[in-house]
Structures are given as structure tokens and as C-alpha cells.
């Protein structure tokens, strides 16, 4: 047998707990182990018993409904709408006036331009509830198939469009720009129409159409 270090007693001399003590010791160990399993289970039970937290996005859609009254293309329209409804979505999805187009839906392209009390407005950024009792004019209210607005005639005459997706917004903006006397030069027209994007690049025709209307309709039948 190897000789133990001088500071330790020989192995044969190490005390062995009596059998009864060892049993008690093992019992205590198993009790502690059982407790360590029980406590997480109790914690889970406490969570399950606690009240259900209110969801961050509660379904309060009914609370968001409000009545609105608008004048659209000369007619009084009353609807109950979600407070978050834009003028564009009200026009297109609830009133079926799909002549106003949704391009970017964030105020960058001008495809959704309508007149609100005569002023150009990006309807995708305008909440309908903010325009109670105001006058809204869309492309459908500008002219009719039987009697087009002079700007519509001019756009046709000067090829002011290709695919047509931006055209209703272009025409609505063009009408307001010419009516307000801001179509004196080509530079002025391009500057004031810069909020209306045309992916087909029909800008030359649009400018020509506006110039012809600004000049009193001269050239409506002439192509550039
Ligand atoms: S859809 Fe409104 S600005 Fe583009
Ligand atoms: S005509 Fe196509 S985007 Fe303007």
C-alpha cells in the first residue's frame, strides 16, 4: 500500500458513516433534488393561474368606426368608416371610383391626385375623416365620356400618356396648375408637375397638352 502524505490519515483510517446516517444523508439529498424539480413546476402553475395579459393589439375595430359625410363629384356621400381609411381607399374600395390610381401609396408618385376644395391632394395620404363636408373631385367628376374636360381632350391630342396609369393624377394636377395660372413657361410647368411621376416618360406630351389649354385651347387638335 502506498504511503499517504504525512498530513492525511491512512486510507484504512478514513471514517465510514454508519449505515443509518448514510441512509438519512441520501434521503436528504433526494428531498433536495425533488424540491428542485417541484419549484419550476409551481412557477409554471403560478404563471398559468395569473390573469391573461391584455394583448398589445386589441381588436378595437368597432371603436374605430365613425360616420363621415363628404361631397364627392357634386354628390353628398355618407359612410361609416374606419378612422384610418384614406380618401383613396374610400374612393376605390367603398365607392367604386377606380379612376384615381394607387401607385406608391406614400405620397411620392401623384397617381392618386384628387382635388379637395379645389386644391391638389395626394389622396393616399389624406384620411377621409379629416375632410368632413369638403368637396372632393376625382377624374370621374372632371368630364364625362360624352363631354371630356378640355385637359382630357388636350392629353389625347398631344399623346400625354402611354399606359395611362399615371394619367388621371396627371390630369387632375394639370387642371389645378393651369387654373391657378402657373403654366406660363415650360420650366414652370415641369417644376409644378414634378410631383406626378410618369414611368412611361410621357412628359413632353403632358407639357404640350398643358400649354395648349393654358393658351385657351389653341392647338388642342395639333400634335407636337
Ligand atoms: S399613390 Fe399617392 S402619391 Fe403615389
Ligand atoms: S402613361 Fe404610363 S406611367 Fe404615365
Describe the SSE topology.
Elements: H1 19-49, E1 65-72, E2 75-82, H2 87-94, E3 113-116, E4 119-122, E5 135-137, H3 139-142, H4 150-157, H5 167-179, H6 186-192, H7 203-214
Parallel strand pairs: 1-5
Antiparallel strand pairs: 1-2, 3-4, 3-5
Bound molecules: FE2/S2 (inorganic) cluster (2 copies).
One FE2/S2 (inorganic) cluster (FES) is lined by residues 161-167, 198-200, 202.
Explain this structure:
- The protein has 224 residues and is α+β, with helices and mostly antiparallel strands.
- The protein has 2 domains: 65-142, Beta-grasp domain (Ubiquitin-like (UB roll)); 144-224, [2Fe-2S]-binding domain (DNA polymerase, domain 1), CATH 1.10.150.120.
- Helix content is 37%, strand content 12%.
- Strands 2-1-5-3-4 form a 5-stranded mixed sheet.
- Strand 1 and strand 2 (75-82) form a beta hairpin.
- The protein is elongated and about 115 Å long.
- One FE2/S2 (inorganic) cluster binds next to loops.
List keywords for this structure.
alpha+beta, elongated, 2 domains, 224 residues, single chain, five-stranded mixed β-sheet, binds FE2/S2 (inorganic) cluster, Ubiquitin-like (UB roll), DNA polymerase, domain 1
Amino acid at each position: 500500500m502506498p504511503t499517504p502524505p504525512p498530513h492525511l490519515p491512512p486510507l484504512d483510517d478514513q471514517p465510514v458513516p454508519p449505515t443509518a446516517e448514510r441512509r438519512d444523508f441520501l434521503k436528504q439529498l433526494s428531498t433536495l433534488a425533488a424540491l428542485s424539480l417541484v419549484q419550476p413546476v409551481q412557477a409554471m402553475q403560478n404563471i398559468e393561474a395569473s390573469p391573461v395579459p391584455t394583448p398589445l393589439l386589441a381588436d378595437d375595430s368597432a371603436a374605430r368606426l365613425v360616420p363621415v359625410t363628404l361631397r364627392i363629384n357634386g354628390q353628398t356621400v355618407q359612410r361609416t368608416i374606419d378612422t384610418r381609411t384614406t380618401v383613396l381607399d374610400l374612393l376605390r374600395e367603398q365607392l367604386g371610383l377606380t379612376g384615381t390610381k394607387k401607385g406608391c401609396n406614400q405620397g411620392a408618385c401623384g397617381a392618386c391626385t384628387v382635388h379637395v376644395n379645389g386644391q391638389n391632394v395626394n389622396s393616399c395620404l389624406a384620411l377621409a375623416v379629416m375632410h368632413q363636408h369638403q368637396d372632393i373631385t376625382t377624374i370621374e367628376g372632371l368630364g364625362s365620356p360624352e363631354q371630356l374636360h378640355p385637359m382630357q381632350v388636350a392629353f389625347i391630342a398631344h399623346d400625354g400618356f402611354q399606359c395611362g396609369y399615371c394619367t388621371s393624377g396627371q390630369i387632375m394636377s394639370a387642371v389645378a396648375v393651369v387654373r391657378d395660372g402657373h403654366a406660363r413657361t415650360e420650366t414652370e410647368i415641369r417644376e409644378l408637375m414634378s410631383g406626378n411621376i410618369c414611368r412611361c416618360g410621357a412628359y413632353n406630351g403632358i407639357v404640350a397638352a398643358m400649354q395648349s389649354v393654358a393658351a385657351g385651347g389653341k392647338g388642342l387638335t395639333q400634335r407636337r
